[in-house]
Amino acid sequence: MEIPGPLFRRRLLIESLIMLAADSGPQVSWLAGYGVMPDELALDFDHAFGMAEALVAEGYLTHGVMPDLRDIDATLSSMGGAEHADRWTTGALDTDEGWALVRELARRVLVAELGEWQQPLPEITVIR
Fold it and tell me: What is the pTM of this model?
């Protein structure tokens, strides 16, 4: 199996950050449009975050964004578990402090990497 190139891996990370950075209204609409739940936002980030260090080493991601990426990962991880199920609803995207922090951190990374955080929400293919 061929390993995706750095530009593809960077795009996955940036798209996951665009989704995390979006205001809750567009997030909810996007999730509903694709028929997926809020945990998909975290799962996509988790998958892409696993490639961040390699992207830094390859020169496709600024090293200075790594602390914010690690904080996003830690915040999402701290929200896991059955005892936090209420944090994974579409309503929580607007009211939960963890989602607000993740949104702020994702915006900071996007500004550092792209110059601004507001980007069109990505189109995806959902395989069921």
Answer: 0.93
